[in-house]
Write a structure and sequence with these properties.
The chain contains 6 helices and 9 strands; from the N terminus they run αββααβαββββαβαβ. With 177 residues, the protein is of the alpha/beta class. The two termini are 18 Å apart. Bound molecules: adenosine monophosphate.
Length: 177
């Protein structure tokens, strides 16, 4: 069970910006957590304590803010870090997965050799909103023969139902709105 005081400290630091990047979106800005060394470390500690005794072979982190929390988690666990990037950024051979946005589509890519068959991974991002990003990522992990142990996010926007979209993969979130 997470200590409520610890998660409250993180939640109190999240800055909410209305109408960014477009009207109607309440943007949950994690920057104040990152600029506070104690809070940044606390976020990494919460995630690493959850996975320290689990059979994690690699951490899969999503472009761009997922890289921050994914890399600290991989570093503490002493496992590899796999980058999921927006289309066109990765130099080697890639697989890709697209998902629908409110307007248009988005495509994510991974290197084809980033995951070996049978590897068990935790997928990390900063925010779970509708779940499209995480579903596309889990789909690529599966196609490469990996197993998603869990999806971990700092912030879950519960009203958007992302958790149900990501199912059957379990979701762990530190802060909920
Ligand atoms: P989704 O695919 O809808 O779950 O969106 C998740 C991605 O979009 C994450 O990588 C987040 O960084 C970003 N995102 C979506 N909604 C928000 C929000 N309200 N505040 C901050 N980031 C968001």
């Amino acid at each position: 069970m997470l200590l409520k005081s610890a998660t409250d400290r993180l939640k109190n630091a999240v800055r909410t910006i209305p109408d960014f990047p477009e009207p109607g979106i309440l943007f949950r800005d994690i920057s104040p957590i990152l600029t506070d060394g104690q809070l940044f470390r606390l976020s990494s500690t919460i995630l690493s304590e959850r996975y320290q005794r689990k059979p994690v072979d690699a951490v899969v982190a999503i472009d761009a803010r997922g890289f921050i929390f994914g890399s600290t988690l991989a570093y503490i666990l002493g496992v590899g870090l796999v980058l999921v990037r927006k289309k066109g950024k990765l130099p080697f051979s890639t697989i890709e997965s697209s998902y629908r946005l409110e307007y248009g589509t988005n495509t994510l890519q991974m290197h084809t050799d980033a995951i070996r068959p049978g590897q068990r991974v935790v997928v990390v991002d900063d925010v779970l909103a509708t779940g499209g990003t995480l579903v596309a990522t889990c789909d690529m992990v599966r196609r490469l023969g990996g197993e998603v142990l869990e999806v971990a996010v700092l912030i879950e926007l519960e009203a958007l139902g992302g958790r149900n979209r990501v199912a059957p993969f379990p979701v762990f979130s530190v802060i909920q709105y």
